[in-house]
Design goal:
Length: 116
Amino acid sequence: VQLVESGGGLVQAGGSLALSCVASGIVRNIDDMGWFRQAPGKQRELVATITKHYKATYADSVKGRFTISRDNTQNMMNLQMNSLKSEDTAVYYCKAHSYWEETDYWGQGTQVTVSS
């Protein structure tokens, strides 16, 4: 499985960005997917996850501002980010998990920078 993120960039505080992650390869084994982020000098942290049956969970820091979605027919996952804050600045990574393969797959990451 290969994951490719897109949609990062520079935005002012209060603005919005939308990230996308497209999966290719043997995608039928993908179960949960999610977005993680890593800011400079910090550990990678969970942002949001979504199951194969579209159940979503969010980190407290992004609840009410970010929305995760998924289209299994297009092998795509999105993250709509609104009301962005400077503390949202990070590299955002797409992750896919396969229970059958007991494997996590990661994308290469996309930079999101929020200027205050």
